[in-house]
Design goal:
Layout lengths: L3 H63 L3 H22 L7 H26 L3 H32 L1 H55 L14 H49 L4 H17 L3 H17 L6 E3 H19 L3 E7 L7 E3 L3 H13 L6 E9 L3 E8 L6 H8 L15 H12 L5 E6 L3 E9 L9
Parallel strand pairs: 2-4
Antiparallel strand pairs: 1-3, 4-5, 5-7, 6-7
Helix pairs in contact: 1-2, 1-3, 1-4, 1-5, 2-3, 3-4, 5-6, 6-12, 7-8, 8-9, 9-10
């Protein structure tokens, strides 16, 4: 991971490297120029030392001739050694331009030394005139050496004139190069600094935008920061926090939805129980009375009346049971048969009821009092309005993953608006002599029980009839009823 601290260090190293490279280049060039200057200056100094030594030698020779003491002779000897050393150093200045002149210059130095030595010898031999003549010759040679020194220096100046001019031109070019190099480095540093600052500020800007989205309650948008530093790590941690908060919100919403559905279920059950209780008038008294009437009718030979009373008692007992407990399809079929026995006694030949049941499905669980209200709705809307009566079909089929229940009639059918009203669980005005539980109540309880809105559907055509389709999932019972 490239940390921000590492990026800062990298930028500082790049700047330091560029500055160091410039400093080394300029220092190398200055040192080279200075060395060349020193070499040229040393040539002038060597020539000047030879001239100075020759003049000093004439002065010391004159002092010795005037006063031939050991000290003066010693100083003359030292001056002669100094001139010899200057000659050796001047010999190193030879080149193509001054070869001839420098050879003459060396010869003049040798002549000066030899003339000086002869003057000293003549002086020691008390040959004063000869010594003075040699002194005059030495003085003349010294003057030649001075003139020759100026000539050689002038030759040196001419020789190195082009060098001086090239150095001046190079200095001007280097000055221009320095300005362009400074502008180029400034431009590069601006680009590098911009990229470096962008690599830090862009992830921070993305993170700020993500924080604003979260502050607005948008927890479904992923936080993604494309960098490889501490800000990317912070963004990943921030995104995990977003996912956790989003999960907690979803969990709270699901719990609220379950509590709302549970509350609706309780209200439906209370409504069903209330309607059932409204039809109760001392249930034990009614059961005992109906049983007594059934036995009396049987003893008087009226078996049909006895069976009807048994069916009424069974239907009443089934309606008074707890509706929050699931029942089997077999229980529902029994109570439907009792209900239809009562209705057949009422409508006689006007009512035709057909059942086609796959007995393998009878153990399936469904909410209590589911089929009887639907059958009852079919009786009210299919049989009662028609003088010739009608027919009702009950089919139970075993599908691969579900049990399909069809309740079909050939009645007058329902308007599409009423069908949507029932499927949307809206209150529907009760018609006819209902036992109490409405169609919308059945729809709500089925959807809550199986936690699916596709568990029921209604197909109805005006003048043709109505078909109610229940798609009961196998091995699936609502969580609150399992």
């Amino acid at each position: 991971m490239n940390t921000i601290q590492k990026k800062i260090w990298m930028l500082a190293m790049v700047v330091l490297f560029i500055m160091a490279a410039i400093w080394f280049a300029l220092t190398y060039y200055n040192q080279k120029t200075q060395t060349q200057y020193n070499e040229i200056l040393q040539r002038y100094l060597h020539l000047n030392e030879a001239k100075t030594a020759s003049q000093e030698m004439i002065v010391n020779l004159n002092s010795y001739l005037n006063e031939p003491s050991e000290d003066n002779k010693k100083r003359l000897k030292e001056t002669e050694d100094k001139l010899r050393q200057a000659k050796i150093e001047a010999a190193g200045l030879r080149n193509e331009e001054n070869d001839f002149a420098l050879s003459n210059y060396m010869n003049l130095i040798d002549s000066l030394i030899e003339t000086t030595d002869r003057s000293v010898l003549f002086q020691e031999d008390n040959e004063t005139e000869a010594s003075a003549s040699e002194f005059s010759e030495a003085t003349r040679i010294s003057k030649y050496i001075s003139d020759m020194t100026l000539t050689l220096i002038d030759t040196e100046l001419k020789t190195y004139d082009r060098f001086y001019r090239s150095i001046i031109e190079k200095s001007a070019e280097i000055k221009k190069l320095g300005i362009w190099l400074m502008l180029l480095i400034t431009f590069l540093l601006l680009i590098i600094t911009y990229g470096f600052s962008l690599s830090i500020t862009k992830p921070v800007h993305q993170l700020t935008q993500a924080a604003n989205e979260l502050s607005k309650g948008r927890f479904d948008r992923q936080i993604e920061v494309k960098s490889n530093d501490e800000i990317a790590f912070l963004a990943k941690t921030f995104d995990r926090m977003r996912i956790n908060i989003n999960g907690l919100i979803s969990e709270i919403q699901e719990k609220a939805q379950l509590e709302r559905e549970l509350q609706e279920s309780k209200l439906l059950l209370q409504e069903s129980q209330l309607r059932s209780l409204q039809s109760q008038i001392n249930p034990h008294f009614l059961f005992n009375t109906l049983n007594m009437l059934s036995k009396k009718a049987y003893l008087e030979g009226n078996e049909e009346t006895s069976d009807l009373l048994v069916s009424v008692a069974g239907l009443l007992r089934y309606n008074l049971r707890r509706l929050d407990k699931p029942v089997t399809l077999a229980d529902e079929i029994v109570v439907i048969q009792q209900y239809m026995d009562i209705q057949k006694a009422r409508f006689t030949e006007r009512l035709a009821f057909y059942m086609d049941i796959d007995e393998g499905c009878l153990d399936s669980k469904i909410p209590g009092l589911t089929l009887q209200p639907i059958i009852e709705n079919a009786v009210i809307h299919a049989i009662e309005p028609k003088e010739d009566g009608g027919a009702i079909w009950l089919r139970i089929m075993d599908e691969e993953e579900s049990v399909v229940i069809e309740i079909e009639d050939d009645g007058l059918g329902m308007e599409a608006e009423k069908v949507q009203q029932i499927l949307n669980e809206q209150p529907v005005q009760q018609e006819g002599h209902s036992t109490g539980i409405g169609f919308s109540n059945v729809v709500k309880r089925l959807r809550l029980f199986y936690e699916s809105r596709d568990v029921i559907n209604i197909e109805s055509t005006i003048g043709i009839g109505t078909k109610v389709l229940l798609n009961i999932p196998k091995n699936k019972v609502g969580v609150r009823h399992g």
